[in-house]
Amino acid sequence: GSYQRDDFLAFIQRVLGKDYTRLAPVLKTLDVTNARQLRHAIAAPYDPRVEGANLGTRPEFHHHLGGPCVLNALLAKSGRHPPLRTAALRDLAAATGGDDVDADVEDMHPAASIAVYASTLAESRATSAELRGVHARDIAERLHKSKLSSPHELRRLALSGSDGALSATSRLPEPECADLGELASIELRGDPDAVLRGEGTVFTAPHGVFLRREKLAKNDEFEDAFETHHPEGWTTFLACAFAKATGGVAMTWCESERTRSRLFRAPNPALTDPNACLPESWRMKSPWTRLLARRPVGSAHVDVHGRRDPDGGGPVSAEIGDGDCDVGVGALEAVNVELADSLGRALKDGLDRCLAGWRRRREARGEFDSPAYAVNARPVLTGRRPDGRLTLSHQGCSLGLVSVQLELSMRLRRALVGDAQATADFANAIVDALASRAPPPGRGETYAGIAALDEHVAKNARHDAKVARVLNAQLERIDLEREVERVRREVGYAPPAAPTYEHFPKSLAQPQPHDVYFRRGLYDGEDSDSA
């Protein structure tokens, strides 16, 4: 629970002594306000090789479990308090619950997660299923003998800055240890059998932290090559809640990455946005892609994102459309148009019934001030980008999964977080719709492979280029500004004082296989869309 200032000060003094009287108020100003946050800030590894924080050189300072931690990096960056000594970090960690932070994560089974990481790493060693199994057992056995008991410990040894620490304990090559550290940045939650064998629906939430996204083009050579994508609030929580309610699996950024993102409010330079992969860097697979590739072909994948609240015909609705739940099947249309169309309708019908029933229950309790949440089956944010970058649902469909993208408004996310029964009903409506339309997945060790992913992307690249050429030719033949003004007059839209982005509406009279809307750029508020 949250500490009052005097209680927090008393807690710090009781653990560390009166020499640390200034630490409690400094931690509160840095948004470390309770025991859980303090524990995770100590446990989270910080890699100075990537981020370059000057934590000092004296060996008795700064290290916890073999390397720097986020708490000391935060103190060093703030300049308000010296980094803590190793003994102080150890005492605070013990007083707040210990170092095994994975033990408190609900529905997360460390052994199953480590086995999945080992199996995924084995994909890079061999292509045949037989050899892959041999290598997976070899990697898992080495990790077991090195007494690694949790993904957090694995990631800390791989990325804490202790060069060769994981390699020395596991006797695995250093590149493979770094690879394991990247895989362990993703947390897997669910029943152990579902995690290991790919059973059930997988719910992903890639935008739970600040992330870097590579720009397609720069205005000049001095411009930063990356832009920042802001977190989409509550998407991690909802992905885990959906998986728990339906017996599926949740894939999210791990607790240490979420802690680092919340405290620094900036991206980790070692991570990039898995929802906007550039085609030219396609062969440098993200850990998200590789873990999705372990799912059985034909299994269901739901990518959970956040969008801004609709404003009833205002700038937000004009830019990304009305709706509290955007059902994006644009990526699936590239694979199976009929399945995408029927699944989109089934999801809309099922979620409409779920939200209507929820509204009746709220009104029966006397809650009449809640909005009527709307489901949009033909949204602007479709899960397939027109700029050539690959979303996570696009990657899932390319791997042979049945992937859809859900964009949930902030008001709907907050309402779901506050009502466990509504969250379970919402999740079951999604899974029921997927089960009613999608064919049953493959059985056994029939994992979609990276080779199939490359083949699909290469095949669709030609089609994407053709769509882009047709679109550009159409745009060259019209006066875009005049057309936008005409549409504004027809719908009675008054532009904001300083408009920044517009999109050109698709003509409903001309059916198209894919949505080709231009999508919005970075939103600078507290929440952002997945675009």
Task: Give an account of the 3D structure.
The chain is built from 23 helices and eleven strands. It is α/β, with parallel strands linked by helices and 531 residues long. The longest helix has 28 residues, at 337-364. It has helices at residues 5-16, 23-29, 35-43, 48-51, 70-78, 86-95, 110-122, 129-145, 151-159, 165-170, 174-183, 192-197, 235-246, 255-264, 287-292, 315-320, 330-333, 337-364, 392-398, 410-417, 420-437, 450-476, 480-491; strands at residues 63-64, 67-68, 186-190, 202-205, 211-214, 226-229, 249-253, 300-307, 325-328, 375-376, 402-409. The chain starts with a helix and ends in a 40-residue tail after the last helix. A seven-stranded mixed β-sheet has the order 3-7-4-8-11-9-10, with helices on both faces. The protein has a two-stranded antiparallel sheet with strand order 1-2.
